[in-house]
Amino acid sequence: MAVKLIAHTLIENNGQYLLIKRSKIKRGLPNVYPCYWDIPGGIVEENELPREAAIREAIEEVNQKIRIDKIIHEDSQFDASKDTVFTRLVYAGSFLEERNIILDPEEHTDFIWLSSLENLEGELIVSYLLDIFADRST
What we know:
Layout: E1 2-13, E2 16-22, E3 25-26, E4 29-30, E5 37-38, E6 41-43, H1 50-62, E7 65-79, E8 84-97, E9 108-114, H2 127-136
Parallel strand pairs: 1-8
Antiparallel strand pairs: 1-2, 1-6, 2-5, 2-9, 3-4, 7-8
């Protein structure tokens, strides 16, 4: 059984959070959670710390240099089809310098700033974000 670590960042700016919409196809293959709203993040690479991966993914996915504050969420799940345990760490983060959001259309098709997931009612949202936003509203 393999173990993969994933690092994401919930980027906050003036009380709003940055979400990005996953593309249907990623580099010619079906994307994981196609058309779902998510936050910047991805697999931690070999010889990379989770914090470094979260910072790298923010640059790659939304063109933002960020500061990592603290871990706000952790979850793990076993994917039997891949015989892999995926563990996700989600950090709270903010801009080091604010720049234009630039998406890679191979990975993401849209972005939105919001303070609550109510703005996305009826949309597909990755499940861990529902937990994070529920924690933030209590």
